[in-house]
Design a protein that fits this description.
Layout lengths: L2 H19 L3 E3 L3 H4 L5 E9 L4 E9 H12 L10 H22 L6 E2 L3 E5 L1 H10 L3 E5 L2 E10 L1
Helix pairs in contact: 1-4, 3-4
């Protein structure tokens, strides 16, 4: 990901997480803050216009996704419905992708977005995502979020 795309993603995540879930985003976390995370969720959305296509992905620990759902639902400390963490991550990805595309390509470009897909992963897979270097890392309320944007002309 280019430095410009990283900065844009930081801007987008800061706005979306702060306004949508009352969570704060930090950039350039320390290595120990993103290491062993246990099970995680990875969400993906694809997009296409007449000129550009691509995919945006985010991954975060399951515990963070549940906290995200609590914040979005306004039910901190309450039992959240089954699947709420998955749905919250998909919704944040959907909103973030739309915002990012508008900022990067302008509001005149019309994009078709797919329905976000989600899958789970184990700690070993988390490390593989980190080591590949394709993902940028952000901290959201001290929890790591991996993100990548892949454009296909």
């Amino acid at each position: 990901m280019t430095e410009d795309d990283h900065a844009l993603m930081m801007q987008v995540f800061s706005s979306v997480f702060e306004n949508f879930a009352f969570m704060f985003v930090e950039d350039d976390p320390e290595e120990e803050e993103v290491g062993a995370q246990g099970p995680f969720l990875q969400a993906e959305i694809s997009f296409k216009s007449k000129d550009v296509a691509g995919v945006m992905e985010i991954a975060a620990p399951v515990g963070f996704c549940n906290e995200l759902a609590e914040n979005i639902l306004g039910d901190e400390g309450a039992d959240i419905p089954e699947g709420a963490g998955e749905n919250a991550l998909k919704e944040v990805l959907n909103v973030s992708c739309g915002y990012l595309l508008a900022e990067k390509f302008g509001t005149e470009e019309v994009f078709d977005l797919s329905i976000p897909k989600i899958r789970g992963g184990a700690e070993k897979q988390w490390h593989a995502l980190l080591e590949g270097g394709a993902y940028d890392v952000f901290l959201i309320d001290e929890a790591p979020l991996l993100a990548r944007l892949v454009l296909q002309p």
